[in-house]
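Weekly structure sync, notes
Attendees: PL (lead), two postdocs, one rotation student
Agenda item 3: pending single-chain targets
PL asked that the sequence for the first pending target be pasted directly into the notes so everyone works from the same version. It is reproduced below exactly as submitted, 240 residues in total.
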Amino acid sequence: MNSSLPQEHKVGPGAYFALAFAAVFFSGLLGGKEWYGVFDFTTLNGAFGKVVSKASLDDGTLTTATSAFRGTGGSGAMDGFLFALGLIPAVMFALGMINVLEHYGALRAARKLLTPLLRPLLGIPGTTGLALIGSLQSTDVGASLTRNLSDEGQISEKEKDVFAMFQFSAGAMITNFFSSGAILFTLIAVDGTAAVPTSIGACIAVMFIMKIVGANLLRLILTFTDKEALVKQPAKGDTV
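Predicted structure, written out during the meeting:
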């Protein structure tokens, strides 16, 4: 017997610390321009600068408008190439960080802690925990980490399909909601009451619950599809 085998799967305090760091790093909780932004994925990933897209002269005053490095009015394969170029830094950075965190045992800790939760909830293993957290902030991160798990054989095709359904319904939920939807909660009606009669927390809870519902609907469909395929398969020795 090889006595070193149990040690390879041991999850120590360092692995749990790496998992906690990864959860915070990919969650977006520390995002912003404060000093603690150095521990946030989106902040460190950064963004392309703006370029002047339009200039006009109004009463002797030069007015300029800026846009992303892709410019405006792009179309076809050319614009698709620039879009893909914008994804490359995030994907490479995310995969690099996951490799570092995996070295310190973050995925082993996630598998041990999250499998009892994610297996009955979504039918996926706990190793998808970091990808799940990352997908709430960035669809690029979630997709790249899921692809990495699939290439390493840590999730099956069915699990990958179900997990993809969870990720891309209300994709990048936290980032997109707070960058566009949260402003609705500052609106005031004519009578002085809030224009949106609910809370931000309630909206996030509804979106998260419906992501789970959608993933389980696909999970149910795939389960019945697999059963039907098994029933239709001819028995050994039968002629087709």
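Discussion points:
- The first strand starts at residue 51 and ends at 58.
- The chain has ten helices and two strands.
Action: rotation student to compare against the earlier draft before next sync.
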